[in-house]
Write a structure and sequence with these properties.
Strands 2-1-15 form a three-stranded mixed beta sheet. The model has no long low-confidence stretch (mean pLDDT about 90). It is an alpha/beta fold. Helix 1 links the parallel strand 1 and strand 2. The chain has eleven helices and 15 strands. About 30% of the residues lie in helices and about 25% in strands.
């Protein structure tokens, strides 16, 4: 089953030197410290990653796995959705990252595999703009409605407004940017922690959007697209219920999310999702200590096979 919103193939990166990244901790409120040795933490993250890949493949999703052996000090490499994205029509974007360790995650072998196995027309590389201290961290910074052509974006140091405009012009999206904070008043660092867009529904914590007018606009635009808006609570967001990705599996649409996120959803919310998609919970508690969850681990491939 294929959906314009939801890809049937993904890229994932297997971590070997996984830790909660000290460079990103100051503005990622979701990060916590794992209370065990670096070796044990890395081994647990690898196990979680491998199980997640297995479950996705069992559901009929094509998963291209790349190993990160950690020679370059890339503690967040398990989250590849931030440094590149793919788009129907054969387009790839490569993004500038906010901190140096995350810039080292970009790798040519991923792009080469995409060119070999899928139809790629062009690669637009924005990464040189890091020299000017500009960042736009891919589908972490932007949650893309591929059908309505909207890039929902939380304003932050991970999403430069000029770069957002440039991306939207190049890839034909309308930018809708807004400020968002958690219930402790901390700025949200990535849009994909507070919202995820499926084919027939959207998960979002509307209460995190500061400006009432902007909040109403976001809700209206999601509803105009024919989706049911599932309004999440702050507590559900803290449990990564917004950090989900809908994919096209063998037997239809699946919503990949962490076990913790699934447990945070109410029966009513689950029913709305299950009207059109099967929940696919993945257990990633160690990986979540780095401040990202299942959505961050998965880079969707919206390209046609060769």
């Amino acid at each position: 089953m294929n959906s314009l919103q939801s890809s049937s193939a993904v890229v994932m990166v297997r971590p070997h030197e996984f830790v909660s990244n000290p460079e990103t901790r100051h503005d990622n409120a979701f990060q916590t410290l794992a209370h065990r040795s670096a070796e044990a933490t890395s081994a647990a993250a690898r196990e979680e990653h491998d199980r997640a890949v297995e479950h996705l493949r069992d559901a009929g999703v094509t998963v291209h796995v790349f190993d990160d052996h950690g020679q370059q000090n890339t503690p967040d490499s398990v989250f590849p959705n931030n440094w590149f994205s793919t788009h129907p029509g054969g387009h790839i974007a490569i993004y500038p990252m906010f901190v140096p360790s995350r810039r080292r995650e970009r790798r040519t072998d991923v792009i080469e595999l995409l060119k070999q196995e899928y139809r790629v027309q062009d690669v637009i590389d924005y990464s040189g703009l890091e020299q000017d201290d500009l960042a736009l961290e891919g589908t972490g910074a932007m949650v893309l409605d591929h059908v309505g052509r909207i890039a929902y974006t939380v304003k932050s140091n991970r999403a430069d407004p000029v770069l957002l405009e440039r991306f939207c012009t190049n890839f034909n999206y309308e930018p809708i940017a807004f400020e968002a904070r958690d219930d402790a008043g901390r700025d949200v660092y990535h849009t994909n922690v507070l919202m995820g867009i499926g084919t027939h529904y959207a998960l979002i914590c509307l209460d995190m959007i500061i400006d009432a007018e902007r909040r109403a606009t976001v809700q209206a635009r999601l509803e105009e697209s024919g989706r049911t808006v599932i309004d999440l609570s702050h507590d559900q967001i803290a449990n990564f219920a917004g950090n989900t990705i809908e994919l096209s599996g063998r037997d239809g649409l699946v919503l990949a999310l962490s076990s913790r996120a699934k447990d945070a959803l109410t029966p009513e919310q689950t029913d709305i999702i299950e009207d059109s998609a099967t929940l696919l919970p993945l257990s990633v508690p160690t990986i979540e200590t780095a401040g990202g969850s299942v959505r961050c681990m998965i880079a969707g491939i919206h390209l046609s096979r060769r």
